[in-house]
Amino acid sequence: MNKEMNAEIISVGSELLLGQIADTNAQWISQQLAHLGINVYFHHTVGDNYSRLKDVMKLANNRSNLVFVTGGLGPTEDDLTREAGADVLNQQLETNQQVLAKIQTFFELRDIPMTENNQKQALVLKEGEVFPNNEGMAPGMFVEFNQTGWIFLPGVPREMKSIFLESIVPFMREYYPVNEQIVSRVLKFIGIGESILEDRIFDLMEAQTNPTIAPLAGEGEVTLRLTAKAKTNEEALTAISSLQEQLMMRIGDYYYGKDDESLQQKILEILKENSYTLASAESLTGGRFIDQFISVPGASAVIAGSVVSYQTQAKENVLHIPKSLIEEKGTVSEQCAREMAEQVQKQMQSVISISFTGNAGPNASEGKPVGSVYIGLKIGNQDTVVKAFQFSGSRENIRNRTVKKGMELLFNTLKDVLQK
């Protein structure tokens, strides 16, 4: 069989609809199918309801030629996937003796009584192919109905991934060979809004065919996903690189990394390469800025430390901000941000220091509206730079945007300093 495959993923479980757990299975399966050159056109989430589950399966069978179903294969009464699948796909269920023996052995080795409902996990589609579950009980299954291939997998991510990698991938390559591979690369930009970015590359987006360009807005940054289809991985990467060159000519000044690279990782790389150390003095961010760096392994080589000076007294007693300055200018001020950056640089003996002060709400403070933020930055013996910002949104949003803006300011300043 050699044709373009259009896949759909059905995630089963009321806990997904209730928001109790995130549906990471669909995301992961989509990534794996892209590597196999298979398009995924639909993600569908349905609760543990027999009627609704059947409706979703019938819809998938009419519009996709490959359907993955995860979840609902367990031993409890609300695990209904195999029963609904048998009904919709005109199949009978039978007990797989090999799977049943494995389940029985599991309980015997642990000296735990096996309840009758656990036998349910040994039920399989009679005409289907069974894939062993080396991480759990319920196996994976494949059956074809009306020219649509159906693959059933457990909902536990560890079990699902094990079956997929060990059995589904080789099965797919043999049963559904494809002529193309799908490859993606994500480019990340900071300091440019989504609308401005799109305006600068509008003609490229309008003319896109293969590779394609998809803008994705994030908190304080913008990403572009470039996707190419080609016969080989190398051909797809060549096409993506060519398009990336065109994009960089227009918006390269705002680029900081690709794929899984984070802004804090890129900043840490610059700090390490130049033997710079970094310290922060944080008020409204409460240590959130420096924590982003400490979360990265190896950060201790360049992160000197941080002072969280939330109350006015801490600014005076720990950072030694003059009381007269605070009384005259206030803590939410350009002058206070400058003094905080300079004082923490001295105390931590760091090359670079950054400070954050402002009002995240919920009420105005010192005559400054909610969202007023000042960020101070000092590099070596250079004059301290203080930038003022006015953010909107919730308290949490203001704090997150402040951290992101601080990273943007630090990253761009370091680039400018090193380019001179």
TrEMBL record:
The text of the family note is: Belongs to the CinA family.
Q: Which CDD domains match?
A: cinA (cd00885)
- UniProt xrefs under Gene3D superfamilies: 3.30.70.2860, CinA-like, MoaB/Mog-like domain
Matching SMART domains: MoCF_biosynth
**Which residue range or ranges hold the MoaB/Mog domain?**
8-175
- According to UniProt, the name of this protein is Putative competence-damage inducible protein
Q: Which InterPro entries match?
A: CinA, CinA-like_C, CinA_C, CinA_KH, Competence-induced_CinA, MoaB/Mog-like_dom_sf, MoaB/Mog_dom
